[in-house]
Amino acid sequence: xxxxxxxxxxxxxxxxxxxxxxxxxxxxxxxxxxxxxxxxxxxxxxxxxxxxxxxxxxxxxxxxxxxxxxxxxxxxxxxxxxxxxxxxxxxxxxxxxxxxxxxxxxxxxxxxxxxxxxxxxxxxxxxxxxxxxxxxxxxxxxxxxxxxxxxxxxxxxxxxxxxxxxxxxxxxxxxxxxxxxxxxxxxxxxxxxxxxxxxxxxxxxxxxxxxxxxxxxxxxxxxxxxxxxxxxxxxxxxxxxx
Length: 242
Description:
Layout: E1 7-8, E2 15-20, H1 31-39, E3 43-48, H2 61-78, E4 83-86, H3 98-111, E5 115-119, H4 133-149, H5 157-160, E6 172-176, E7 183-186, H6 191-199, H7 202-206, H8 214-226, E8 234-241
Parallel strand pairs: 1-7, 2-3, 2-5, 3-4, 5-6
Antiparallel strand pairs: 6-8, 7-8
Protein name: PIG-L domain-containing protein
Keywords: Zinc
Pfam families: PIG-L
């Protein structure tokens, strides 16, 4: 798969919903594409399963959670995203199950996206590093919740109690940072904002043992993806058609 040229992402859509486990997940790979989409007048909403409260070793979760929410809202604003929802599930022990599926299905019904973006749900990252449970569980729950959202008999309380009509209109799910990437977006013009969106997570980066340079990391990754996409800076996705 790695030697295969990447195809252009679909462009005949207007609304996207990005669902990930933690603050910073979208900034490590997808935010350059989000900036390109919002520049084109598309609407993108972020939904975070957790507040990332277990992500800073030297900071208590009670303090880290609100701080990381603020950093995520700031990072999203850099790439043109104004709506950021936090579902309140526990960071580090995120469970795949009906509560998470219901919460994501609620967001799909509420925002009615044509494209759903999520982080890598597979066991490994590109290059072979082991993925973590929160990412895998959030991704699998998102895949299932997209289908749940279109079925009025699954989570009927969303309609009966909250008035949220079923939404079967999701046409694609795009998996960022997937080892099985198939498509890509040219982010040459939004590369700087992608870097700035990651730098907005200053407290999180400061708490890492080896945070590296966000500019160097993201540009190197974008150049590597671009080798399969015309030599530009690129953000890749595994595109799943529904």
